[in-house]
Specification:
320 residues, binds protoporphyrin IX containing FE
Length: 320
C-alpha cells in the first residue's frame, strides 16, 4: 500500500471519529468474512415454519417470503427516489425501471402459486390460515402510499368528499381496501382488517404523511418542465403502473380463482372478503398515475390491455 493511500485511510478513520490505533489493533483479531455470515443464510433458512404437515405449504410460505423480500427492495428504491436532491429525468426513469423489474419478476413467477401447489393440499392447509391473508402485507400497502397521491387510493365512492385538507385518519378509513374488510350493511370491520390496523395503522399514518409530497407522482409533478417533458420517463411510469395495477393484480386474481373457484364450490377467502368482486381491476380501477393514461385506456382499465400497453412517442393523448 502506498504511503499516500495509507495517509488517506488514516484521515478517513479519524474523520469517522475512530481511534486509529485501537482500530488497527482490532484488525489483528479480524475474522475472515464468509458467505453464510454475510448473507445470514442460516437465519434466513430458519424462517419457514409450517402449520400443517403438507409439503406444498412450504411452497406457499417461501413464495410469500420471496415476495416480501422483493417488496423490501422496491421500498428501498422508493425511499432513495423520495430523498434524492435535484432529481433528473434520466435517474428517475432508471430507478423506476428497477422497481418495474422487481414487479416483473413477481408477475412472471406467480405461476409458482398458480401451478405449483396441489389443489388438494392447498385446500387442506389453507384451513389452518384464517383469518390471515396476503391482504395484511404492510409492505404492499406502503408501496402504494409511496407511489401515488392518496386520492388515487381512496375508494371511488368517497373521492369527492376527500381533499388535501382531510385528516389522514379520515382518508385512511376510506382507502379502497377498506371495502374488503367491512360489512356493507353494518359497517363492522372483519377480524382480518381489525388485526391489521391494530398492528400497523399508526405506522401507516406516519408513512402516508411522510410520502404525501414525496410519492412518485408528486416527485414527477414537481419536476422542472425540462425534466418533466421526457417521454422515456413517462413510459417508465406507465410501465410501472400497468405492471403493478393490472398485471400483478390479474396474476393474483387468476391464482385466487384457480384455488377458490377450483374446488367443488366457490370457497370463502381466508381473509373473508367478497374476493371476486373486490379483487378484479375492472372493479377496483386502481391507478397510480391516472394523468398518464388516455381516456380510452382508463375506460378499459383491466379489460383489454392485460399483456402490454402502448409505448408513447409523444404527449398528445395525455392530460398533463
Ligand atoms: C394461492 C395463492 C393466493 C391466494 C388464493 C390468494 C387469495 C387472496 C384473497 C382471496 C385476497 C382478498 C382478501 C381476503 O379476503 O383474503 C387476497 C388479497 C391479497 N393478497 Fe393474496 N392470494 C394468494 C397469493 C398471494 C401472494 C403470493 C401474495 C404476495 C404477497 C399475495 C398478496 C395479497 C395482497 C397484497 C392482497 C391485498 C390485495 C388488494 O387489497 O387488492 N397473495 N389474496
Amino acid at each position: 500500500m502506498s504511503k499516500e493511500i495509507d495517509k488517506e485511510i488514516l484521515k478517513t478513520l479519524a474523520e469517522k471519529g475512530l481511534n486509529t490505533e485501537s482500530f488497527l489493533e482490532g484488525l489483528k483479531s479480524f475474522k475472515p468474512l464468509t458467505y453464510w455470515d454475510y448473507i445470514q443464510t442460516e437465519s434466513l433458512l430458519n424462517l419457514q415454519i409450517q402449520r400443517s404437515d403438507l409439503p406444498d405449504e412450504m411452497v406457499f410460505i417461501v413464495y410469500h417470503q420471496i415476495n416480501e423480500l422483493l417488496f423490501k427492495m422496491i421500498l428501498w428504491e422508493l425511499e432513495q427516489l423520495a430523498n434524492k436532491k435535484q432529481l433528473i429525468a434520466v435517474f428517475f426513469s432508471e430507478r423506476l425501471e428497477r422497481i418495474s423489474r422487481y414487479f416483473d419478476m413477481l408477475c412472471s413467477s406467480f405461476k409458482i402459486m398458480k401451478d405449483g401447489m396441489e389443489l388438494e393440499q392447498y385446500m387442506k392447509f389453507r384451513k389452518t390460515l384464517a383469518p390471515a391473508s396476503g391482504f395484511q402485507s404492510a409492505q404492499y400497502r406502503k408501496i402504494e402510499f409511496a407511489c401515488t397521491e392518496l386520492i388515487n387510493l381512496i375508494d371511488f365512492r368517497f373521492r369527492k368528499t376527500i381533499n388535501r385538507n382531510t385528516p389522514f385518519k379520515h382518508a385512511f378509513e376510506h382507502l379502497y381496501w377498506q371495502a374488503a374488510g367491512k360489512n356493507h350493511k353494518t359497517g363492522e370491520k372483519s377480524i382480518m382488517i381489525k388485526l391489521f390496523e391494530e398492528k400497523y395503522m399508526e405506522d401507516f399514518i406516519d408513512f402516508m404523511k411522510k410520502y404525501n409530497n414525496k410519492n412518485i407522482w408528486s416527485l414527477f409533478d414537481n419536476l422542472p418542465d425540462k425534466e418533466k417533458n421526457n417521454i422515456d420517463l413517462v413510459n417508465s411510469m406507465r410501465h410501472l403502473d400497468h405492471t403493478v395495477n393490472i398485471k400483478w393484480v390479474m396474476q393474483h386474481f387468476n391464482t385466487a380463482s384457480k384455488y377458490l373457484d377450483g374446488a367443488n364450490k366457490v370457497e370463502k377467502a381466508t381473509g373473508g372478503s367478497d374476493w371476486k368482486k373486490y379483487m378484479h381491476p375492472k372493479y377496483q380501477r386502481r391507478t397510480f398515475f391516472p394523468k398518464l393514461w388516455s381516456v380510452t385506456e382508463l375506460d378499459n382499465w383491466g379489460e383489454q390491455n392485460l399483456e402490454g400497453h402502448e409505448i408513447l412517442s409523444n404527449f398528445n393523448d395525455l392530460k398533463i
